[in-house]
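Q: Predict the bound structure with PBG.
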Amino acid sequence: MNRTRRLRRNPFIRDMVRETKLSLDDFIYPLFIVEGEDIKREISSMRGVYHFSIDKVLDEIKEIMDLGIKSIILFGIPNDKDSIGSEAYSSQGIIQRAIGEIKKKFPEIYIVTDVCMCEYTSHGHCGIVLDNGDVDNDKTLPYLGKIALSHAEAGADMVAPSDMMDGRVGYIRKILDENGFEMIPIMAYSAKYASAFYGPFREAAASAPQWGDRRSYQMDPANSNEAIREVMYDIEEGADIVMVKPALSYLDIIRRVKDNFRMPIAAYNVSGEYSMIKNAIENGIVGEEIIMEVLTSIKRAGADIIISYFAKDVAKSFK
Ligand code: PBG
Ligand code: ZN
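A: Predicted complex:
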């Protein structure tokens, strides 16, 4: 008989033969930054996740660094929005100021920034909108270039464009290179699906589109070959890391991308995935072990990097 149970008999042997192990090195922790002072306000759609003013986010970063987390991704929520998202690339914008303050106090923390327009535009779309309502690809590119450059100038370690315009990785690479930032990597949200799993984030970032949806730029959840093409184009344009987003309904995509390209792959365990699980735990429907199970499945599928609101829970489970 093949006795597969021999290697499951006790924790020692199970630990020894475990194929996938999470490490804090894998994680990037998202943070939401708002204008104002002395603000730490729980986001109603995301229990355990907060809006922080810049002064308060410094305390949070101290805490996560003490827990062993080494990297964060920043999202800014400005007070003022307009049709071209000008706060997104202002040197005095919320993110640019936050990066400066964070780096001054914690030079070692690795700062990734989300490069997009939807949190900054009055219409909530990820690009420049024409009179007929279309989101114009090529008119958007210069704005994305300006946003990425302003983040690099403020001191970001890596930029992560999430807008899903065509050609943006190449465009941003060129702008960064021309300005002396050839060593700043680009983590491209390459296979980013038009997903209902972003619901809680859009409440958190006040970034829901004022009309229509994002299906003319984000991917159709039914498509897998198209994800391979998206990733291929981004690699050709100079992406250093490619991302699949969301993670859990797209584990097959993570695996396909890994097998096809052998590039560093990030997976974004998004807000809806977080809140569904968090609520189920808080209501006693499932046990807390589900967090490690789910995150391990993302790594097992092929992700090297996991962006997750659960990063602090993982860190605490290691203590
Ligand atoms: C901005 C952006 C979004 C997310 C990351 N960057 C929202 C969207 O595309 O609507 C989603 C993150 C999450 O749901 O946790 N484009
Ligand atoms: Zn966007």
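A: The chain is about 40% helix and 20% strand.
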